[in-house]
Design brief:
Distance between the termini: 20 Å
Structural class: alpha+beta
Order of helices and strands: HHEEEHHHEEEEEEEEHEHHEEH
Radius of gyration: 34 Å
Oligomer: single chain
Helix content: 40-55%
Strand order of the largest sheet: 11-1-2-3-12
Length: 433
């Protein structure tokens, strides 16, 4: 009888432990994923992330409408510095196509800074940090580069003609002669001729593919599959190139496919020239100065004292970008507020913390080239869900094996209790007989 009591107590204890371990096994995954104190702080691909991105896109300058005030912020003492290119996959709301079953959408972002002039190599204080979509950035910067190249080639051609005709002594061309003194005519003329005769030499301008567009493969090697070309991030976000995609939004990259293998012209296969695009992501130099270059003195009277103006490229990017300025001591914004009233920036300041945090996540390297969140060191978040780490898998395996072992032990105890009870009843029956 004492043996039966002991075994029964052990059996009840094992049943209690088994129930507890089963509960822990069932909830272990969620608990492990949420209570790890060493897990990096990240933003998942959720509606909250999409909301923050919406704030980023809407964090623009709010001008005062009182008295017709429409003054621009003065950026003439700053220059544009490229920081990073990044794809980001985020939750798609109904207004972005979520109602069509596309729960994730790919956004293409550029992070750039406005650095004090001649400080793009350091740029560690008195700067603003900004986030804008890739297409807007490329359109504004390549247009600037194109205008700069056209002006350079126009001057170069004039200088080349002067040198060829030996017309340097003409007093009417004195200004042009001064411009030519700092120009290497042979080098610039060759460069300009290459640009002008690009297609004849078998090249296409890569900037023509900034917007996603269908590839017309004249070699008919697509087997009926439609491919698209568009701008993409490369070299961990430090460069921009043209890639091949399988969808019209250029969000699904066609792996191991080279866009140049699909470009054909009247004279056969074509290659891409990056003479414009490569100028918009220099490693340490500035992309462009925000000080508008002075127009040539048309009257030649030496009186060309015009007020400094912000260059169009900086105005365009600044107005389109999400802004993170206060924490970097951006003095242009402080000066603007002091002279135009704090209300002009109420929307930006209200959302600046969210914008700065969003940009910090983009800069931190938690996104892979396709835009998925991927963190080295064991923890990853892909497509809005969490993947188990090695420690979590070990804990789950331990719980499962422990449950199986305890279940077997409980069955053995139950069998012993049953046999013991039958033996006791048999003995009691014999004694009564």
């Amino acid at each position: 009888h004492q043996l039966c009591t002991t075994l029964n107590s052990q059996y009840q204890y094992i049943k209690m432990k088994l129930s507890l371990i089963s509960f822990l096994a069932a909830t272990g995954y969620a608990t492990a994923a949420s209570s790890n104190p060493f897990a990096p702080k990240v933003s998942a691909n959720t509606a909250a992330s999409a909301y923050t991105a919406k704030l980023v896109r809407g964090a623009k300058v709010m001008r005062s409408l009182e008295g017709g005030d429409d003054r621009e912020i003065d950026l003439t003492n700053y220059s544009i510095k490229f920081e990073k290119c990044q794809f980001v996959k985020e939750f798609a709301g109904e207004e972005d196509g979520g109602e069509d079953g596309q729960f994730l959408q790919t956004k293409r972002f550029i992070i750039f800074r406005l650095c004090p002039n001649n400080s793009c190599g350091s740029c560690n204080y008195d700067f603003g940090e900004y986030l804008v979509d890739l297409e807007t950035y490329l359109q504004a910067t390549t247009e600037f580069v194109e205008e700069k190249q056209e002006a350079m080639c126009e001057t170069c051609n004039d200088c080349y003609e002067q040198a060829y005709n030996n017309d340097g002594g003409d007093d009417n061309n004195g200004d042009n002669q001064n411009d030519c003194s700092s120009i290497d005519v042979s080098t610039c003329y060759e460069e300009c001729q290459n640009i002008e005769n690009m297609e004849d030499n078998g090249y296409l301008d890569a900037s023509e593919f900034i917007e996603c567009q269908a590839l017309e493969n004249n070699n008919n090697n697509n087997n009926g599959v439609a491919y698209y070309a568009g701008a993409m991030c490369a070299s961990s976000g430090s460069r921009i190139k043209i890639g091949v995609f399988t969808d019209e939004d250029c969000s699904i990259l066609a792996e191991n496919m080279d866009v140049e293998s699909m470009l054909y012209g009247d004279n056969g296969a074509m290659k891409l020239s990056y003479h414009k695009i490569k100028s918009v992501f220099p490693e340490s130099d500035c992309v462009a100065s925000c000080l508008q270059e002075e127009e040539q003195d048309e009257n030649n009277d030496g009186n060309n004292d015009q007020a400094a103006e912000t260059a169009e490229i900086c105005q365009t990017l600044y107005e389109a970008a999400g802004k993170c300025e206060s924490i970097h001591g951006f003095s242009a914004m402080k000066y603007y507020n002091n002279n135009n009233g704090q209300g002009n920036y109420y929307n930006q300041v209200r959302n600046e913390e969210a914008v700065c945090n969003y940009m910090s996540n983009v800069m931190s390297g938690i996104y892979d080239p396709s835009g998925e969140i991927s963190i080295s060191g064991g923890r990853s978040i892909t497509g809005g869900g969490a993947a188990t780490t090695g420690g979590q898998k070990f804990a789950l395996t331990f719980f499962i094996l422990g449950s199986v072992g305890l279940a077997g032990y409980a069955a053995m105890l139950h069998q012993q209790l049953t046999k013991g009870a039958k033996s006791t009843l048999a003995q009691q029956g014999g004694a009564m007989a």
